[in-house]
Every structure is written in C-alpha cells, then in structure tokens.
Amino acid sequence: MRVTSKMMFNQADGSMMTANEGVFGAQTRLESGKKILTPSDDPAAVTKILNYRTIETNIDQYSRNINAVRARLESTESALGSASNAIQRLKELAIAQANATNTAADRKIGAAEARQLFEELVGIGNTKTENGYIFGGYASSAAPFQTTTPFTTGTTISGEINVQIDSGMTIKANIRGDMAFGAAGGIDVLDAVNRFVNALNANNLADSTTVGFAAQPAAGNAFTLQGKTYEFNSGGPLVNPGAIPITIGAALTNTIDNATTAVLANATNITAVNSGGMALALTSTSFGSNTVVANVGTVANQTVSNNSSVQTTIGEMDAALNQIVNARADVGARLGRVDAVKERLDGVKLATGKARSNEEDIDLAKAITDFTAKQQALEAARSSAAKMFEMPTLMDFLS
Amino acid sequence: MSINGLLNIGRSSLQVNQTALQVTGHNIANVNTPGYTRQRVGIETTTPFVTGAGVIGTGVRAQEVTRVYDRFLAFQIKGERENFGALSSKKDTIARVEEIFNELSGSGLKDKLTAFFNSLKDLSNNAGSYAERAQVLSNADLLAYTIKSKATDLSTLRTSIDNDVKSTVSDVNSLASQIADLNGKIADQELSGASANDLRDRRDGLMADLSGLINYNYVEDNSGQVTIFVGKGTPLVDGIRYNALSTVVNAANSNLADVYISSGSGSTKITSDISSGKLKGLLNVRDSVITGYQTRLNTLTANLAGEINAQHALGYGLDGSTGLPLFSVTAGSEAATISLAVTDTNKIAAAAANPLTNSGPADNGNALLLAGIQDKSIAALGNTNIDTYYNAMVTDIGARSQSASKGFEYQKFTRDQLETRIESVSGVSMDEEASNLIKFQRAYQASAKLITTADELLLTILDLKR
What we know:
The complex is a heterodimer.
Chain A: H1 5-32, H2 43-98, H3 104-125, E1 128-129, E2 132-133, E3 162-166, E4 169-172, H4 177-180, H5 189-202, E5 208-213, E6 222-225, E7 228-233, E8 246-247, E9 255-257, E10 269-271, E11 279-283, E12 294-295, E13 302-307, H6 310-360, H7 364-390, H8 394-397
Parallel strand pairs in A: 8-10
Antiparallel strand pairs in A: 1-2, 3-4, 5-11, 5-13, 6-7, 6-12, 7-9, 10-11
Helix pairs in contact in A: 1-7, 2-3, 2-6, 3-5, 5-6
Chain B: H1 3-29, E1 39-45, E2 49-51, E3 54-56, E4 60-67, H2 71-100, H3 109-125, H4 130-190, H5 197-213, E5 217-220, E6 226-230, E7 234-238, E8 241-242, E9 245-250, E10 256-263, E11 266-269, H6 277-314, E12 327-328, H7 334-337, E13 339-340, H8 365-372, H9 386-426, H10 430-464
Helix pairs in contact in B: 1-10, 2-4, 2-5, 2-6, 2-9, 3-4, 3-8, 4-5, 4-6, 5-6, 6-8, 6-9
C-alpha cells in the first residue's frame, strides 16, 4: 500500500486518541469505584443492578416496618404481662375471700384492693405509646377503656393494624382491646372484676340477678330469663311451670304467670326481692351472671343486673387470666415470626448486596492493572508518535 | 534532423520538467490541504521525424495535469459518510436521552418512586401521625415534580434537536449554494478541455460534507457540472442553480419542523424521504426515539396515577373525606401535567373506613393497599409492576444508546478505512514528492546540458568557417 505522510500522522493521532480514551475510562472507573456508569455501559447488567436495588430498598423498608411492629408488639407484650399479674392477684383475692370464715368487713377490705387492681387494669388497657393507645384498635387517639360503665368506650376498638413485613406478607401489629379485655375475647374482664368488687362490697356469696322495673308492670307485660318467658297478669295466681318458687316483691302488684315452658333445668329459686320497691331477683349459684339473659320484652324501662358472687369470680378470673395469657402467647408467637422474617430479609439483603456489587463495583486489583495497561498503551502510542515525528523524510537526505 | 532540433528537444524537456517540478511543488505545498488530491503531469513524446535512418524522436511534451483519483472509492465513501453522519447524530442525541434517565447516578425517577411507596408503608405503620402523612405528601410531590421534569427534559430535548435540524438545513443550503457556484466555475474552466483539478477538489470536499448531512444521489454531465438529487429525486443542485431546503413548523408534531424543498413546481415535503445523513439521525431521534419514551413515560404516569387515585378514592382521610384522587393528571399528557391534588395531610386516605364514624385514626387499611400498588402487576404495563416497567425502560434506553454507540464506532471504522484507502491513492507522499523533485531536477539539469551541448555543436560548426 502506498503510505502518505498524512496517513502516518492520522494513524498516530488516532492511536493516541484511542489510548487517551482508554486511560480516561479506566481512570473514571477507578475513581468512581463503579464498572458501570451509564446504562449503555452494560444494559443487561443494568437491569440486574436496578432489580437488586429495588430488592434492597424494599428490604430496608420491610426492616423498618419490622422494627415498628416489634416496638408495638413489645409494648403490648409488657402491658399484657402486667395485666396477667393483676388478674393473678385478683384470683388469689377471690380464693381468699370466698372462704366462709371471712366476714363482711374482711370483704370490704378485699374490695378496696380489688378496686385498685381494677383501676390498674383499666390503666393497662389504656397504655399509650407514640402510636397512640395500643389497645385502641383503629381508635388510637381516644382511651378505649374507662372506670365507669360502660367500661369499653363507644369507639370501635376492634381494628386490626396490619403491617407489611415482606412482599405479600402482613402481620397484625396490635392486639384488639376488646379481644384482650372485652367480651369479644370470651369474657369481659373489666366487667367481671367490677362485679367482683361489688360482690365483695355486698358480701355476696351466691350469684343473683335482679330485674328492675321503673314502672309498675301491666298485665300482659313479659320478660325473658334464660329463654323462659314470664308474663305478668293482674292479680291472678302465679303459674309456676318448673315448680320453682318465684316470689314477687311487695311493691310488685302483678303476679307472674303464663311461663311458656318449664323454667330452669336445675333447681333454682327465683325470688323477687324488694329492692328499691320494684324488682324481681333470681338467685342461683349456677347462673354465670353473664349467662343470664334478659331481654326487654314488653316491660318498659326494664334493667337487668347480674350480681356475681365471690365464688363465681374464682372461675371468671381463671377465664380472664386465660384470655390475657392467650393474647400474650399470640404476641410472643408474632414476635418470633417477625424475627424469623427479619433474619431471612437480612440474609437476602446481604446476598443481593453482594450480587449487585459484583455487577457494578470494580475489582480494585483488576481496575488498577487495567489502568496501568491503558497507561502503557498511551505511552507506547506517544513514544511511537514521537519517533515517527522525528523520522526524517527523503528531504532530509537531499542537499 | 538539425542542431536546432536538438535545441528544441532541450527546450521542450526544460519546459516539461519545469512543469513537473511546479506540480510537485504544488503537491508539497498542499500536503495538509483537506480534500486535496495529488496531481500528476501526463508526459508524452512529441511527434517523431521519420528519416531514412528510422524514426527519430523530437522531444517531450506535457500532456495534461490530472488528479490521481479513484472514482469508485469516491462513490463508495459517499454512502459511508451518510451513514456516519446519521449514526453520529443519533449516538449523540440518544446519549442525551440516556442522561435524562441515568438511574445509576442515583438522582433518577426510580428513587423518587421508591421513596413515595416507602412513605406509604411508613404511613401504614402509623396512620394517624402527622409526620408520616406530611412525608407522604412531600414524597408524592417530589415524585410528581420529577416525572414532570423528565417529561419537560424530553420535550426540551426534542426542541433542541429541532433547532439542530434547522441549522443543519441551513448548512445544507450553504453547501448547495457553494457547490452550484463551483459547478459554474468548473464548467467555465473545463471548456478549454483541461481538468479543473483544484476546483474539483473543493467541490468534492463540499459534497463529502453534504453527504454527512443528508443522503443524495448525483450525476455529472459532460460539462463537469453535478446535479444532486435529494428526497424523491428533487434536484438540490442543478448546474449553477440550487433549490433551497426549508423548514416548516408542523402543528401536528408539537410545532416541530418538517423539511421541505422548494423547486419550480412548488414546495415538497421530504422529511420522511431523508434516509441517511445527520438529518436522518436527528429526525429519527426527534420523531421516533424520544416520542417512544415520551409515550412510555406517559403510560407509566397514567397507570401510576390511575392506580393510586382509584385506591385513594376508596379510602378515607382523617377528616372523613373520601372519593378524592391523590394526583391530578390531564389525560393524554399525564407525565407533563401530573401534580398533587391533595394538599391537606388529613385528606390522605389511609383508612379503609371513615375514621370519624366507623374506625379510628389508626386505621391503615387503605394505606396498605396503596403501598401494595408498588408490587401490583398492571395489565396496561404488560403485566409488570410500575417499578419493573420503569427499569425496563431505563435498560431499553441503555441498550439503544449502546447499540447506537457501537454502530457509530463500527461505522467510523469503516469510514476511516475507506478514507485511508482514498488517502492512499490520492494523498501526497513527501518521500515520493522528494524523489520526484530530484528526478525532475536531474532531468532539468540534463536538458540544460543538452542545450549547452547543442550550443557547442553550433560553435564547432561556426568555427569551421574561420
């Protein structure tokens, strides 16, 4: 091939330019620590890097969520721990006070302690953290419980707060207040404790239910107790289908008759007691007070109050303790699950980080070698260009 | 045959070698002139005498100064230059698109997208809190702003490429006018039959420049003038006249310019007939590549806003508000118009039921569902989630930029190879010229000696008479 001087200059220029580019690229990679600086450097690797980054940031977020869940569950756990201690103490109190040798005065003293414990339980139910009332469900800004009836405030406390802790996995971060302390969990703990206090104060050793009327029942008015309907008539004899004596308080002018079916299966006395003038009281040791059902029927302004006995409380406190312990176990299990997920996520994050680093980070030793090689190429190009420039042409030999 | 004949031979040789030295000098002088083609003197013998002793030469004559030029190579490199122009402008402009979507630099849209969804997840941890709500609003606002600025960047890039198109069109016109001008000069000079070497070099250079800008076909007529056709065969240069290209704003294409050529029969649109050269690269990126990504960004935004808004409308704010969208977009230009529709933190619908009546401030039911949109497969996005769709878009830009840049490198190599071959044929070699210099100098010296010899012969004859 015919080689002209311009070709030689172009060649020298071109190879120096290429070598310069090579050194620049190697230097940029070395200084940034990254193999890939723009998506076009390696589109296939970029897909992977972006996916790895998504996984990593998601895991970071899940870890934050897990920490939030942990904080909630741990405070729930400790609150429930205190609650179970309080109920344990109430149960001991009930056992002690059920002893027949205790006097009314003793029970009054017990009642004071039980009331303290009741208030403590209400306080526990109203535990507040930076996320609001932890037993409040969705109603995090209003105290879910109070010391006067109704013990559970009107707002919905049945909300369950789900938190996402992994892709496609959510976990409940709270224990519903009504499940731990309310009737939804099986027994209304606060109500039971309150009745215990009242029973101690009233020195009640047996359960009773009082049905009160604000006005004189008229003939034809009815009410239901444990599925049996009782109807008032006007002075007629009391038909007592179950051979169970029902006595009517002095102020109740109407008698009860026309009970639709046999009354209670067990021998139970239904006595109407004179309480505030107009009341019908049922006395039975086998009534779990909360199992007595009374409906309004047709009697105006009817009230039903269940009067627990100290005896009954022992069983109820067992049930309450069970309910709290179960809730606590639930929390414990969730904490375990959260930890397991966290451990898994940490593992995945580590592996993903490594994989991403493999794709985008330079191997330092290799990068330095590469940089040196590129530098040498540049030096070679420069030195050959310099030699070429020094090279005489035929002109130099002509004189 | 006479001594005068000998003198004539000497004279002709002096003349020819002087001419040759002049051409050699011209070559040396133009060794670095771009587009210069080395020249050679055609040398031939003069008509000989026929004598009884045989045919006796009468000397030498310079025939013609010609360019050493490979017509085939010149034709071949035109196509390579056109492709080079197209790929070069394509590579440069796609690199600018890539800059807009360079997610590896850590300041891209993806970060904002992730931050937005993460703040929704934080909100679900503590739905009633002002801090988390404010964070959602600020991240949503930043996301909307980032999407909008990407959309703006893309349309600004289109405008800036459009300006490039306009200036390229005026470059084409300037080249066309110079070529037409040279056409006239070449024809004038070649009327005498001699080749207008330097003017042709200049015209070749202009045509090489033109081929980098726009693809064309050309024919050369007997007078040495070229006719250059562009588009569907409309002459851009016709003899000493040229038809200017013009740009006309196309309202249907975001007020960007179309390329027209005006000729005797009126103006013809040639935008879609341009198939190579810098103009093609610019038009391709402006009207196809960027619009493609604009559409994808719009699809992404439309689906993001659509999904979030639909879910948001189902939930309830702390103040019991419901049915509200989080983002506001204008259909058809979602990316360019997305903005935040909610400014009151209490109106962020984190709750699945009305917190005032049916649940409470901690109700995070809807926040969870909103955060879940991040992982939701959306049919309109090809059954991928938002994040994957965007990743694919970024990778696609990267791949396109890479292939444009590789295509450019390859084309550059091919073009440079051909340039080298042309240089190899037409370039000036100093060694060669130096040896020519000596060759012609020696011949000149010998011719002078010949004249001296003839003179001595004459003197000898004149001395005979003494």
